[in-house]
Each structure stands twice: as C-alpha cells, then as structure tokens.
Amino acid sequence: MNAKLKDKIWTGILYVISGFVILLLMALIGYILYKGGNSLNPSFLFGKPKVGEAGGGIGPQLFNSFYMLVISLIITVPFGVGAGIYLAEYAKEGLLLNIIRLCIETMASLPSIVVGLFGLLVFVGMTNWGFTLLSGALAITVLNLPSLTRVSENAIVAAGKSVKEASLGLGATKWQTIKNVILPSAIPQILTGIILASGRIFGEAAALLYTAGMSAPVLPFDNFSLVGKSSPFSVMRPAETLSVYIWKLNSEGMVPDATAIANRSSAVLIIMVLLFNLIARILGKKIYESYAGKK
Q: Which residues cross the membrane (predicted)?
C-alpha cells in the first residue's frame, strides 16, 4: 500500500468521524428542540412559575441564569486573563511556576459536586451569606478559572511569537506590547475560553444547588439594589437558575406538567447557548478585525 492510498484512507476515516460528531450534535439539538415544542412562547419565557398548577413560565429562572452569567464573568475574566498574562509573559521557570501549574491542573479536574460542597462550607457557611447569587458565582468561578487561565496563556504565547519582538524592537515597553499588540491578536482564542466558561455557567446545576439555592422569588424590577434581598439585581439573594429548575422539575415533579416544562426549559437553554456562541463569535471577529485594520 503506497503513501497516497494510506493518506486517502485516513483522510476518509477522519471525515467520517467528523461527520458523525456533527450528526450526533444535530440529532441531540433537534431532539431537545422537538420535545421542547413551543418553547419560545412569550408567556412561557417571561411568565412566572405556578406551584401545583399547570402552565407556568420560567421568567425568574431565565433572568437568574443571565444575571449569574454576568456576575460570574465579571469575576472570572479579569482573574483568568490576568493569570494567563502572568504565566505567559512574567513567570519564570522554577519551583513556583511548577506549583502554580499543579494547582491549576488539580482545580481543573475537580468534580462540580465537590466544588459545590466547598462553596457550601466556605461561601455559604463561613461567610454567613447563606444561599446567594454571589456564592453561586464564586463557586462557578472556581470551576472556570483553571480552564480560562490555560486558554488565555496558550493564546498569548501563540500570538506573541510573531509580533512580540517586532513591537519591542520599535521601542514599545513590555506592557504596551502586551496591551496593544499581543492581547488583540489573542482575542479570538481568549474569547473561545470565555464562551466555554459561559456555557458551563448556563449548564451547571450541581455546584449551584449548594450555593445559589433552589428558590426563585418573583421580585419587583423597580427596586434596584445590589445587596438588598428584595431586589432582583441583588447578589445577596437566592437565585435558582434555569438548569437547577430543570433538575428540580425532573426530581420533584411539583407541577402536573413538570415533564413538559422541563423539556421546554431545556430547549430554551440550548437556544440560549447557541445564540450566545454565535453572537460571541461574531463580536470576537469584529474586535479582531478592528485591531488588525481589516474591513
């Protein structure tokens, strides 16, 4: 068997595997959307849950999911990208760097239920905050920080190879090079890490069960406060996200049409993740083109 024939065979096998992965994803999404039915009904998306009655909505849970996403990214992105910059540009090979990498790899392998129990002991118990949105966001940060750090580090190292020496040779300082040259070039890869982190925020349930709680009170939106528990914008109130609500519906069956609501909620969750990925990709491309001078 000659080299060209071997290449064609293995290329065909890779195409088959890739096609199978795509079909599997399409089948999964299609099945969820089919079972979800009319999940984009406004009365369902923005309605209130009805305890013991059929026909409830997911308005509070949907708001809590997006609010959890925002708060968690506000905490995760600066620390994750900052740690990536340090590891890629400032850290020197040695014992300290080996310890940091070991800690990152260990944190990345932690099961979400273990992080949830840690959050219950620390963010809920030791701080006396109770079940709050902030406790949930911090638990999610513990889960997402290692992966975002590694993605940011790899992106910065890859982007810096071709442009770093040129920038320094033109007289720019190291920080100017990182801020104005390397980071813009690494934005697409870093954005990929942020998208992965966001997807985990949308889909995570185990860690949030023990930290953010399982109650979604209907709160007035005309009351703005970051700490008052009667405000929907408060980070110090319980916040039941959509993924936790789906778990609760399937485990407790507290309404007659629990299965139907769980299916429709799952469809909404899938649609939100797909839309977020699409918008983030387009936004990242536009940002990269603006820095690169492309139109």
A: 12-34, 66-87, 99-123, 129-146, 190-212, 261-280
